[in-house]
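User: Working on a comparison across species. This one is PLP-dependent transferase from Apibacter muscae. Can you predict its structure so I can line it up against the others?
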Amino acid sequence: MKLQTKLVHISKPDELTGAISTPIYQTSSYIQESPDVHKGFAYSRTANPTRKVVEQAIAELEGGVSGFAFSSGLAATDCVLKLLNQGDEVVAGNDIYGGTYRILSTVYNRFGITSKFIDTTDVKNVTNAISDKTKVIWIETPTNPTLKVSDIKEIAKIAKSIGAWLIVDNTFLSPALQRPIELGADIVVHSGTKYLSGHGDVLSGFVVVKSEEVAEQLKYIQNTSGAVLSPFDSWLTLRGIQTLALRLQKHSSNAQKIAEYLLTNPKIDKVYYPGLKNHKNHEIALKQQDAFGGMVSFSLKEDTLEAATRFLTKTKIFILAENLGDVRSLASHPATMTHKSTPSQIRRETGIQDSLIRLSVGIEDPEDLIKDIEQALC
Ligand SMILES: *Cc1c(COP(=O)(O)O)cnc(C)c1O
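Assistant: Here's the predicted structure for PLP-dependent transferase from Apibacter muscae:
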């Protein structure tokens, strides 16, 4: 079955009632016939029927054995990091999501789990950074906000050679456009807040694993730590997933048009979009992605905070907000918003100039979006 068909029918009719939309099982516990004899559900932190449907859906879409749903992307990340032990080392990309950088460098470091941050777009850097303590290689591709692409297949080989896990944060593309497990990754992490739910109305996070053994451990940690996704938010995410392919196609085609327009505007300095032929990692993106996604970043010739602020307060359709993957077009300023907690030196090294603007291109008419950008640049 092709992806689009699979997505639309991702939640099967409810076995108990025949409801074609998965019911929201808004319950914390379940009746037991006699002590510890029940229908597989005892308490909703451990398992909930609505959450189970969305967990099975994401596992199926990413091609893993099990999926786990959390109350946010960072709750998902936190749960995955709890698989590690004191003394383990994480080798991570140097422009991963700010919150992932923050939890690694200010929380897990206190428990004796160290992290190295490197440019993973060059596979040689990964080879040089690993050691016998490396347990995890953590990448995001494309990255936030400069859209750097790393070669999942090649990095998976390196991880395998040292018995480490390759973990890919697949938030920016979703399984509609990229399936890291097929390319050799061990674990996929998502902020479902973004494209999976897609409508800017829910926080959620997901983990998909390909090994039964890791699935057992994660199930234990999910239940033990407790940051599970609520029944209603599970349902909202499920509803979003039904239109995932359709939305991602439109996000991608709009973003491509906007990136090409930006190249022609004299006020623009750099344009970052993996779908542009001059993008540094265009070839890898072509190889491992089905399309280039909805995120576009650019910097201004006038590289100041003031110039960025002027643009961001003049747009009429693009909404200034700290999110992405919404059907509405959003704009943000990484240096003062999403990447505020990234040290300024690392920020500059990774191309986050003061005037850098990140667009999460929505599914509106592309002509309206381009006109909006044009007037805001004047
Ligand atoms: C938003 C985001 C996260 C964190 O997810 P939350 O749902 O906000 O907790 C992690 N990774 C990436 C790439 C993100 O964009």
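For your comparison, note: The first helix runs from residue 3 to 8.

User: Helpful, thanks.
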